[in-house]
Amino acid sequence: YLLLQQELGAGYNLLTLPTRKFRLGLSQNLFDRWSQVGDRAHDSRGVVSAFQEADLTLPWRITISQRGVWYPVNEEADGWENRVELNKKLTETLSTSLRHEIRRNNPDGTAQDYTRLKVMLGLDF
């Protein structure tokens, strides 16, 4: 299957300092899914979500960012996801990061629950 998630929302900055930021918001999500199996080749679902984001800048060009999303769904288990990332900028163009992701009861109905740990290398150009 192919899943496309679109999100449009608004948030409020509760804390905005040079080294710390904290935001809260609400958004509307649209999950579009296409598959070639079964009776329904395409289905779509709109879900409201609440989110919070936090960023922390540390010395030595290190940043920590976190984003949590809660999907309250009527008559189903609420869905949620969380992502925490530790990023180290090695040079102006090269960075590395460690990311932990967790997702439970995703409202698109197809993705399995998961927990992932990723190590990434980034190149900005």
Short structural description:
By secondary structure, the protein is mainly β. The protein has strands at residues 2-16, 20-34, 42-58, 62-71, 79-89, 94-104, 114-123.
Structure report:
With 125 residues, the protein is mainly beta. The chain contains no helices and 7 strands. It has a 7-stranded antiparallel sheet, with no helix packed on it. β5 and β6 (94-104) form a beta hairpin. The protein is globular and about 55 Å long. The model has no long low-confidence stretch (mean pLDDT 92).
Which terms would index this structure?
7-stranded antiparallel beta sheet; 0% helix
Find the structural class using helix and strand composition: mainly beta
Percent in helix: under 10%
What is the topology, as strand order, of the major beta sheet?
1-2-3-4-5-6-7
- Gyration radius, rounded: 17 Å
Relative strand content: over 45%
Total helical segments: 0
Poorly predicted sequence stretches spanning 5 or more consecutive residues:
none
Shape estimate:
globular
State the separation between the terminal residues, measured CA to CA: 32 Å
Mean pLDDT: 92
What secondary-structure arrangement, pairings included, does this model have?
Layout: E1 2-16, E2 20-34, E3 42-58, E4 62-71, E5 79-89, E6 94-104, E7 114-123
Antiparallel strand pairs: 1-2, 2-3, 3-4, 4-5, 5-6, 6-7
